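FIELD: query
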Amino acid sequence: MSEIMPSKRNFGDTVDDIINNPAYDMLGGYHIFLRRMVIPFFLFIIAMLLWELTQNQIVTAVLTGLMVGPVFGLERVFAEWQIRKQSK
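FIELD: result
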């Protein structure tokens, strides 16, 4: 069992797994930036717009939470579209 799952992994191994992940090769390597920075910023903008429209903290929180799924779904659709575009 210890051969399959090493008990200790150092930070370098984790960084290498992230950097060498072929899923992040799309968009010239900017896909990881998109997931980590642009999507939370987009959700923040949605929350600010909802707050401006509703002026209700609970409604803003619920509607922004409901938007998390569609935002990540759009990101996945975009990623699959890029993969199909690159394979042609």
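FIELD: remark
The mean pLDDT is 78.
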